[in-house]
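Data deposition worksheet. Section B asks for the primary sequence of the deposited chain exactly as it was used as input, without tags or linkers unless they were present during the calculation. Section C holds the resulting structure in token form. Section D is free text for depositor observations; keep each observation to a single sentence. Incomplete worksheets are returned to the depositor.
Section A, Depositor: J.P.
Section B:
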Amino acid sequence: MISLSDIQAAATRLEGQVLNTPCVESKTLSQITGAQVFLKFENLQFTASFKERGACNKLAQLSEEDRRRGVVAMSAGNHAQGVAYHAQRLGLRAVIVMPRFTPGVKVERTRSFGAQVVLHGDTLEEARSHAIALTKEEQLCFVHPYDDEVIIAGQGTCGLEMLQAVPDLQTLVVAVGGGGLISGVAVAAKALKRDIEVIGVQALRFPSMFNAIKHAHLPQGGSSIAEGIAVGTPGRLTQAIIEQYVDDLVLVDEGDIEQAIVMLLEIEKTLVEGAGAAGLAAMLKYPNRWRGRKVGLLLGGGNIDPLLLADIIERGMVRAGRLARIRVSARDVPGSLARITAVVSEAAANIEEVHHQRAFTLLAAQNVEIELVIQTRGREHIGQVLAALHAAGFQAQEQ
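Section C:
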């Protein structure tokens, strides 16, 4: 088990090597959640993730022999970048094994730090097995992403900084994959403030730590938008620490995480990946749990595939009613489409897409279905657009 002194020593070791990122209140999120919300912006680290804290702490303590041979790590992206960047900075060879479907932005960024990237397997577990095999074949030092006391101590420096910035925090909400971050944060936080509450958040599709701690048997999915915490097997060390120091674990679904990503982008103008948004997702899903408390949220990382982000934003606009699809039935005569678009325009909605449907419809042959994708101000505005179409004599409904 690690102690506060291990984490404090890590903080001294990391000084000047990683950022002491801001931990500031979000007044808007505080209003929305009913809690006083403080955000720890770990997505502002050079590699856009807290993972470089543990990686730097580990690499800085390698023996001369291990430094000469080099290191190997397995990661879905953030640990990979942290190890690659600090290995490059320290002049070490780094081999990174990543699952084959890791987002391209993370693969290319890892390569940009001079690491040798090996794409192997469809899951972190398969990547891990291959990385361990490489340690024997090439005599490399294995740098585990979470199940290592030195890594955990490095991640725990986040907790030190949060309580230094806001000493009267009452609750910390931390995403959980393998458990390295929450283990270090919980040890630091409980040592500094015994009555602080530490809550872990896992993706419903990967509830491995939740199952282990709560003796549950929830099924595991094949993929998650929060790939950074999509870990199939909990760490041995981290599970023991979580059992002792973490107050509770909660689960969030994919839609919850998507909503949190869009909200952070729109409200805070900050980009986070799925794992980094899990904490806010939990606050939005279980609002009564945090109301009236001072809550620290750790935005763990900001490495997200741009194409995935575009899809998430669009889906978020649909959920908010700012992007809607409506179906209008009309006589198939010249001028019908012009009348429909004029009504929508007069209702102050913007038309993004138009589809005529003549063949695949149950309407009479002389009629046509017109599907519109429109930009609106929200749910109430959608109702106003539909009312305007009805008043103009058209049958219209939201799909």
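Section D:
The chain has a mean pLDDT of 92.
The first helix runs from residue 4 to 14.
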